Amino acid sequence: MVTKPGWRAYVCIECCAFNQRTHWSYLQCRRCRRIEFIRLPNIDVTDLLNNHFTGLRGQLPMDDAFLESNIDQFIKSGKGVMGRTKLHTTRYTFERFDLGHNNSVMVGFPNWEVIVKELGPSFHSLWDLTRTDGSGKPPLLDLVRAPTRTGLGASEEGKTLTAWFGRNFGIPYTARMKMPNDPMDQAPETVLELLEFLEENVKEALAASGAADSTTAHTLSPRFNEALPIGNYPGQGMHWHSDDEKGVVGDIVASVSLGGLAHMSFALKHKYRVGRLHQGKNIAHVDDVIVKGTLKEEEKLQIQAEFLEGATSWNEATERMSALVRDIKCSQRSVETILKFPLPFGAVMVQQGKSLNEIYVH
């Protein structure tokens, strides 16, 4: 039953509340705020993969030949990527992108055996953990949409929620929302096993890239300090953001994808795109992608100096400044993606570097 454009009415199977309006892109009861995941009967991971890999011509990245002939056409790297290398580990073939100043992004494509024997069962276990048993108790992995800050005052707090569902384990996650948090030792066994799987493969990737120094080893020992399972509905995704929360994020941020085919993009942060001079921090690598932004701020100062010195007239200085402001505003309306790649089922992504999330959003 359609109640108004873009909205539909549902009966919550958790608390039996009737006519709970939820936005078309997610299903959640307004009374108990529970999400209900729908699992098809007798679903098999191979069927799931076959249904979701149409973007990769229905094939899986099983060997180098496939990677060279298929994956590469989906990876888009632009100005700002200083190097690209291929790395091989026990379970993955990684593509490593050098972004300068010891910052890099690696994406690993698994072989078929890893997906079927290791990640396939993990996917089913996680799926079962999100289901209720009909007793009215919350599921073991109770993923919820967290309230976000609206910027409209305390009276509006909690009225907007994230489009994605999650629950944090380990160090509390508080950036821009109050995410439900539990101690790491209370995480379901499947989550801890996936964390160990991720840690092992990240260590192998870092070792293959020559980046496994003492600092990195300390960062990954004995395991990551935070685990954040996230769920999205098909077609949904996160807005541009950076994993730069103080006290939580270290030099390594990694993830493993257990859903349908997704895409990840990296771009410069707003302050590097609009021509602001970032003073006091020496984090911008000497590259045209970032320097072109700072030059706009320097050009503004130059126009002002020339006018004060009498080298240019008021009309000329005003015209040049207006043109520069229009150029800056134009850059504000666009995000220049410097890196984009697919994340199929089983893919691992590794962000490495102290200043990576200070410079880039994804």
Automatic annotation (TrEMBL):
Taxonomically, which superkingdom?
Eukaryota
Protein name (database record): Alpha-ketoglutarate-dependent dioxygenase AlkB-like domain-containing protein
Q: Which organism is it from?
A: Podospora aff. communis PSN243
Instruction: Name the lineage.
Output: Eukaryota, Fungi, Dikarya, Ascomycota, Pezizomycotina
